[in-house]
Design brief:
51% strand, mainly beta, Methylamine Dehydrogenase, Chain H, 6% helix, 29 strands
Length: 355
């Protein structure tokens, strides 16, 4: 063996020995930034508008808007509140799930009109197959469809039960959490009919958050009482796994870029679940967040998860209330316990979680 060959062999051997030791695993998730805005009123859903690069948070009777990338407060849509927001990037129209539904201009942040609907609106989304805004209700009719161009109601779908989060595969199938039945409803959007309902099984709780891996046809139902994630085959409803999560989930999703599902919980944790394969799932990390951060939304560009909660300020005799427009960006996480999305006055906290 000549000197050059001996050197090459030694280098290869050292490389093989060093490989496992030097292999880098993905960095853990953590709270990267927190934006605080003083105000009052309850909150429910947070919505990351990935096309418009904004975050919308209804609180009380208004909706607050933040920059998704710079984590800064942009402005307020007055006299439009509710549970959640969905935005149509083509028409630049936004909608808030309330009764009546509020419609606004995403450029000017001005209210356009209100839309009378039936039921008790809760969840909301822009559905790509129909191109409609879908409002999910806790009473009949279960789903109301709205044309985002002019705000007209184009139809309803009755599923039965209390609707929570929903996910679309973009190809005509809609999956909806039915909270009080512990099931996932499967809706054919072409016929506007319920195809079936998947039973989550005896180990499941009430589903609130929902994630969907479109490629592998996997549903992730985030449940309370008991606190578990139930992984379901979206094609046949078979339960594939049941994994522990934190307490008080009300939001979740799936990131196809990282092959991870997530569940946000009011106990101040965010559970990350790794899909190692279509049949192998594991809890990857439990991320400390803030008490009350039970809803979440995904920033698909930055692979970050946005969460919200409120923090009631302690009552102080003779204290002067802080103006509602006061904001602190990238503030250190507070140790005060939150109000669970209810009441005020106090801080609205918007958290960005990522690697």
């Amino acid at each position: 063996m000549n000197q050059l060959t001996r050197f090459a062999s030694l280098t290869l051997g050292l490389g093989l020995l060093a490989g496992p030791a030097l292999a880098q695993t993905a960095a853990p998730y953590k709270v990267l930034a927190t934006t605080q805005l003083m105000g009052s009123g309850g909150t429910d859903y947070v919505y990351a508008d990935n096309a418009g690069r904004r975050v919308y948070v209804p609180r009380g009777g208004n909706t607050f808007v933040f920059d998704l990338d710079r984590h800064q407060y942009i402005g307020c849509i007055t006299n439009i509140g509710g549970h959640g927001v969905a935005v149509d990037p083509a028409s630049h129209h936004g909608f808030s799930s309330s009764n009546p539904v509020g419609m606004f201009d995403t450029v000017t942040l001005q209210k356009l009109k209100t839309i009378d609907v039936s039921g008790r609106p809760d969840g909301i989304q822009l559905e790509p197959f129909t191109g409609k805004i879908l409002i999910f209700s806790h009473e009949s009719p279960s789903v109301t469809l709205i044309d985002p161009k002019d705000g007209t109601v184009t139809g309803t779908i009755d599923i039965g039960g209390a609707m929570e989060e929903a996910r679309s595969d973009g190809q005509g199938k809609l999956y909806v959490d039915v909270e009080d039945e512990k099931k996932i409803a499967v809706v054919d959007l072409a016929t506007m009919q319920v195809v079936t309902k998947y039973d989550l099984g005896d180990s499941a709780g009430e589903p609130g958050g929902l994630g969907l891996d479109v490629k592998n046809h996997r549903l992730f139902a985030m449940c309370t009482n008991p606190n578990v994630c139930v992984v379901v085959n979206a094609l046949d409803g078979k339960v594939l796994a049941t994994l522990p999560i934190g307490t008080g989930t009300d939001g979740g999703g799936f990131n196809p870029n990282t092959m991870e599902a997530f569940s946000s919980q009011s106990d101040g944790t965010l559970t990350i679940i790794k899909e190692n394969s279509p049949t192998d799932f594991a809890v990857e990390q439990t991320v400390p967040t803030k008490i009350g951060c039970r809803t979440s939304s995904l920033d698909t560009k930055n692979n970050q998860i946005v969460l919200i909660c409120t923090e009631r300020l302690p009552a102080t005799a003779g204290a002067v209330p802080t103006p509602a427009a006061t904001m602190v960006t990238n503030a250190a996480p507070s140790q005060r316990r939150g109000g669970g999305g209810r009441g005020g006055p106090g801080n609205l906290d918007v958290l960005w979680v990522g690697r």
